[in-house]
Amino acid sequence: MGGPFLYHSSGTKTKKFKQRHHKYDYIRRFTNDMKQVAIIGGGISSLSAACYLASQGFQVDVYEKNSTVGGRARQYKEAGFTFDIGPTWYWMPDIFENFFGDFNKKPSDYYQLDKLDPAYKVFFSEQDSISIPGTAQEIIQVFESREKGAGRKLEKLLRSAAYNYEIAMKEFVFKPGRSPLELVSFKTLPKAGLFLTSISQLSARSFKDPQLRQIINFPVLFLGAKPSDTPAFYSFMNHADFTMGTWYAKGGMYSFIEGLESLAKELGVRIHTDAPVEQISVKGKRATGIKTAGEWMNADLVVSGADYHHTETLLEPSYRTYSEKYWEKRTFAPSALMFFLGVDKKIQNVDHHTLFFDESFDKHAVSIYEKPEWPEPRLFYGSISSITDPTVAPEGKEAVTFLIPLAPGLEDSEEIRQHYFQKIMDRFEKLTKQNIRDHISVNKSYSVKDFTEDYNSYKGNAYGLANILKQTAFLRPKMKSKKVEGLYFTGQLTVPGPGVPPSLISGNIVSKMILKDLAKKS
Ligand SMILES: Cc1cc2nc3c(=O)[nH]c(=O)nc-3n(C[C@H](O)[C@H](O)[C@H](O)COP(=O)(O)OP(=O)(O)OC[C@H]3O[C@@H](n4cnc5c(N)ncnc54)[C@H](O)[C@@H]3O)c2cc1C
After folding, report:
1. Which ligand 1 atom is at minimum distance from the Cα of 85?
2. Over 80: is that where the pLDDT of 188 sits?
3. CB 309 near ligand 1, within 6 Å
4. How far apart are CA 5 and CA 516, in angstroms?
5. What is the rounded distance in angstroms from the CA atom of residue 72 to the CA atom of residue 498?
6. Dist CA 481 CA 312 (whole Å)
7. Is 485 within 8 Å of 319 (Cβ atoms)?
8. Going by CA atoms, what residue is nearest to atom 1 of ligand 1?
9. CA of 211 to the centre of ligand 1 (A)
10. pTM assigned to the model
11. Cα 46 to averaged position of ligand 1 atoms, centre (Å)
12. Which residue has the least CA distance to atom 6 on ligand 1?
């Protein structure tokens, strides 16, 4: 990681940061003439870009349509219960450390982080479940206890996954996606074969037990694609899962968002909430500002962390790079149906993160990616964060989130949501052997319509564009507008892709791209 500019996201410490700072002082001088940046959206990628650009002397204004920042990672509170509306899995803590480190800060300056042990639990049936322990060594033993020889095979898989992680971080995820040549190096070339095999082929080759295969396939669901469509190179997600572990920010993922917001403000970023951007102004093919609440705000550069398709609708049609047809042909990551439940008793037989994999993922995946329809049968996920964090629910009660992944663009009605609510309750109560339905005091649902209305999300997608091979790296929508000078894009629809750590990285990449473009002109 770490680029040619000021950021040392690979964790290189302060001395190097300062040396580089002097080296690139000329950019500071240049930016004095060109310092107004308007950022559309207050999600993670936008706030990350805002921090990097503000630290370089730009005057940064963030315009967010909702009343709080965080975007997909906002928070919902009701009757003493606190829920993360979006992300709940805190993986790859190194990316967060390196991000804060770039500003001489640490995550612990803003929030308390703890490792979860067990990391999560997976139900395969009423009789069969696995708790994934907190260390790779213990997980290897769990695998061995289910299938003779599986421990050794997992060890081998994790060695290769660790190497892929290193390559991904050094040679891959911090690249701006301008050209395929960015990905070619003496380290990446020997890995080319891993782009021709899928994660599901890798897991099938390694393990006989279908449950072990499912656990290996699970992490790539975060990339928004089917394991059979995800290159085996992404086994670096298994390194993140088993070796780096699952972490939890006390108070929920939103504590990280509050940290990010505080950092941005400390760096001088001005954050405007309830400020939907209605238009991007272009003069002589150059972005000159944005319009919010009927008022024009001048800017030398415009960066959008809002969904790409929506951002382009803020431009006159002739300035849009991608057509409606282009978007229709993309493979979007799933949308979701979620329930945020306040349960007035403690729940048994579950972990903080619990996956319900007791039905076929392959059939569920067809309903998401091939024949979009409400899924039957369905997998779902439960987050019961109050198991480890007493601050998110009143004493003796539980804050529970259920999530079912869905195809984007499905018809969404209260009736359908309630049908699925009852189905989930049936399954949950049967698998975990308890009644919770009669103890629910808070019940809020969230689905396709909300994603569309709250985030201007294309077809109500939850995680942006899937990271399948043909939508990876230089094949993703470009960070720099091809038609409007000074207009840039960041976030989960651009590089490197969906997820909290990638969104943080995306803000880093776009800011480096801007500095590089300015340096070329100076
Ligand atoms: C349900 C769910 C669960 C997830 N789980 C995980 C997880 O466990 N772990 C993980 O790492 N990742 C997870 N993710 C993915 C992760 O949350 C996202 O990839 C990330 O938050 C995306 O950030 P972003 O900055 O790209 O976009 P967003 O968060 O979408 O930010 C874009 C912002 O732009 C704003 N906006 C849109 N239009 C306008 C406009 N016209 N004017 C002003 N503002 C506008 C939106 O309101 C939004 O705030 C999850 C996502 C969801 C939805």
Report:
1. 1
2. no
3. no
4. 8
5. 11
6. 10
7. no
8. 86
9. 31
10. 0.94
11. 10
12. 87
